[in-house]
Amino acid sequence: MKKIFKKFTGNTILFLIIVLNTNIVYAQENKEIRTTANEAVYDISIGGTQTFEIMDKQNKIIYITVEELKSPARISNGTYKVSYLSPGAWQASYQVDISSNKISRAHSPSYIVISGEIKQTNLVKESSTKTSYYLIYYNGIIGIQTGVRATISGNSLKVTQI
Asked: What are phi and psi of 52, to 5 degrees?
């Protein structure tokens, strides 16, 4: 009886270790995508809401969500909301209009400060393929220029930290 109990306990612990250490990757609508890369790659052809867990420049986990807001007439047309969450610091978002695989407009910027202070923001459409939402974030005395950048390439909208 003791051998069976030890074997059962050992197998249960091994199973839990394997399950808890497994990263599951989903590429479907409304599923979380886990990665250790420093950019999130939203697949426009899938659409919907896609959430990414990536690493920022300081190797801290951040969360990026890209959400399709309007049903496009064609796959390459539509409005997408780009959201960036730096846990314990700040959250920022803005909307990007895409037409024929080009960014036609960036608008509706917003931010929420969780701790610290944001003193300056600037949303810029830098080209037909790149938009940036610049922030100066203060966590104490020193200001850090940071923000969110979205770049379109084919059927992908890539989002990174500035």
From this structure: -130, 145
Contact 56, 46 (CB under 8 A): no
Burial 13-48 (b: 16+ CB within 10 A, else e): eeeeeeeeeeeeeeeeeeeebeeeeebbbbbbeebe
Half-sphere exposure of 36 (CA within 13 A, CB side): 2
Instruction: Please give the angle made by the CA atoms of 24, 68 and 50, to the nearest 5 degrees.
Output: 10
DSSP 57: T
Region 47-67: what's the mean pLDDT?
Answer: 92
Chain-centroid distance, C-alpha 161: 9
Q: Which CATH architecture has domain 26-161?
A: Sandwich (2.60)
159, β-bridge pairs: 40, 150
Give this prediction's pTM. 0.76
What whole-number distance in Å separates Cα of residue 31 and Cα of residue 47?
11
pLDDT digits 0-9 by tens, 96-147: 999 988 999 999 999 999 999 999 999 999 999 999 999 999 998 899 999 9
Q: Is 74 left (phi over 0), alpha (psi -120 to 50) or beta?
A: beta
Angstrom distance (rounded) from CA 41 to CA 29: 13
